[in-house]
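Morning!

This is the sequence you dropped in the shared folder:
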Amino acid sequence: MPENLELQQLVDDESETDVKIHSRKSCKCPYLGLLLATLSSLFFSLCSVIVKWMTDVDPMALAAYRYLGVLLPAIPIVIYRQEPLFPQGKRIMLLLRSFTGTAALMLSFYAFRHMPLADASVIVFSVPVFTGIFARMFLKEPCGLFNIFSVVLTLIGVVLITRPPSLFGDTINSLGESGQKTEIWGAVAAFSATLFGANAYVLLRALKGIHFSVIMTNFGSFALCQCLLVTFLIGALCVPPCGLDRYLIVALAFFSFLGQILLTLALQMEQAGPVAIARSSDIVFAFIWQVLFFNEIPNRFSIGGAVLVMSSVVLTGMRKWILALPPEANLRRNLAFLVK
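The structure's back. Tokens below.
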């Protein structure tokens, strides 16, 4: 999902350092990193539930509140490390990364509100699959048969989830008579969020070498200003009138903060590939919350599309894991087809 984009920089900066190696060796539980990644998915999925639940507050306003959970923890970190906020030669890239990341989250919040929660989560979570395509276009990174296969598999899954009327007609609803139908603009927002998020990943790769706290501070500040401006222009800027809604907004920022911290720790303890696989549990949580909180039962098309997209994401994570293994490793030789 877009909420973990700012932390990909941590992988680029520290995945090959002695700090990370020491963290793995000193960890008494070999699966602690994967457990933390799963817990981060739990908190991020609860953020999605809050966005969908609070129908009286515009999604853009909720995005502004959510970015407080990104900005506030980053400020003391960047002050402690005495990092330059606007490093020379990287300022335009920082602005572009902030814009794409903000657009991705705003669009995903709109999708959560106007689509079934699980369907929107599946589409938004397919960001890693499309990253390889944009990395090939802008960074000239290699793009092999596996990348093409994973993109095609994901697109088929997205089509099954959104079910365009031109292909499926108007006879197939998203969730049956009692559920929420997939609105066309919600589906467009979800897929657009995926494309913006993939470009944000590519920009993070181009910003390799800059500490993640600098990127999070720039991202949080820019995103907060952008969300406040958008909500003001559309007349949606407000403070929730009732106590429960205010508590939910505090929970939104708090869960975002917990998700960020847990994902940071997970990436310090484990390779990016296994963490990406563990993060796919976000899709499972989304289906559970959809049934539990909103009484929306997904049909066979949504389930089938989710299986395809989740398979593509898991295979992409496995590929990252295998590429990080030594060339002589048996597992890498046995799964050589994933690195083509």
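Headline: Confidence is low (pLDDT under 50) at residues 6-27, 174-179.

More detail when I'm at my desk.
O.
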